[in-house]
């Protein structure tokens, strides 16, 4: 008899988070505070525009005010930082999200660093990264926080497990590795220069794929009973994991779409509401 597979439903996790947020938003409303997220979109990349629109719609459905700042693709680093500082100084803005990637030759890192730490609800500053590594960030990077949130929602043990993270980006691979380590997992972080990647992935009790390559992780890389979290999203609604192949060995797996993505957006909203709560104290 085949063991039943556990599909880690991100929509379900996100709905649970939003239900809790509704009460927090109502309490803030009684104080005359409306949580507000500012999103900045530089240029006209259609995928980025879609992501910003999705986040704005998610805010609207929950009763969070959203302010959208659209800048042309020829915006300079100086002009972008000036726009960020204007939002930093606005007391009605509780969170700031700069949609990335930004067009070349903008210095994206300099722009991220301009976001005030108490409004860095997307967890993109180096100060926020450091706080996350030490385990006390108010607003860790949203996708890593979503991954941890999914595992915790489904009561999947992390402590004592071997987690293999494929990817080392500063807003996904590295911070989720730190978060798993802080949860007492043993963590191996892999990347494009890792030798014998497939053999290392086979050691993972928890495998997090964050490489940005469709169907990169193969089914025979997954050891029987492993937990597979696919943090990738590629054209055609494909994740970084070959879902059908990996499902054969995995005990639990996130689908794409409806896996990590909805929880990432819910986490962004959660951080924005929490930032507004701090404003209200």
TrEMBL record:
One of its GO terms (cellular component) is cytosol. Pathway: One-carbon metabolism; tetrahydrofolate interconversion. One of its GO terms (biological process) is L-histidine biosynthetic process. Pfam families: THF_DHG_CYH, THF_DHG_CYH_C. HAMAP family: THF_DHG_CYH. Belongs to the tetrahydrofolate dehydrogenase/cyclohydrolase family. Catalyzes the oxidation of 5,10-methylenetetrahydrofolate to 5,10-methenyltetrahydrofolate and then the hydrolysis of 5,10-methenyltetrahydrofolate to 10-formyltetrahydrofolate. This is Bifunctional protein FolD. The gene is folD.
């Amino acid at each position: 008899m085949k063991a039943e597979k556990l599909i880690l439903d991100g929509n379900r996790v996100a709905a649970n988070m939003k239900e809790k947020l509704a009460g927090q938003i109502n309490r803030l409303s009684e104080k005359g505070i409306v949580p507000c997220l500012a999103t900045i979109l530089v240029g006209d990349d259609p995928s980025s525009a879609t992501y910003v629109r999705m986040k704005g719609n998610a805010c609207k459905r929950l009763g969070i005010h959203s302010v959208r700042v659209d800048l042309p693709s020829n915006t300079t680093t100086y002009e972008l930082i000036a726009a960020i500082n204007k939002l930093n100084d606005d007391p009605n803005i509780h969170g700031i999200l700069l949609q990335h990637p930004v067009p070349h030759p903008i210095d994206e890192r300099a722009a991220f660093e301009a976001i005030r730490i108490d409004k860095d609800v997307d967890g993109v500053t180096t100060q926020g990264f450091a706080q996350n590594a030490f385990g006390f960030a108010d607003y860790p990077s949203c996708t890593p926080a979503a991954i941890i949130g999914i595992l915790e929602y489904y009561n999947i043990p992390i402590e004592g497990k071997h987690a293999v993270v494929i990817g080392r980006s500063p807003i996904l691979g590295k911070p989720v590795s730190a978060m798993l380590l802080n949860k007492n997992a043993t963590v191996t972080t892999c990347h494009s220069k890792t030798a014998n990647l497939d053999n290392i992935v086979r050691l993972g009790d928890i495998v997090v794929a964050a490489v940005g390559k469709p169907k990169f992780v193969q089914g025979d890389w997954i050891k029987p009973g492993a937990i597979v979290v696919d943090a990738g999203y590629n054209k055609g609604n494909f994740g970084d994991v070959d879902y059908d192949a990996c499902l054969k060995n995995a005990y639990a797996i996130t689908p794409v779409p409806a896996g990590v993505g909805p929880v990432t957006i819910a986490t962004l909203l959660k951080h924005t509401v929490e930032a507004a709560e701090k404003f209200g104290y």
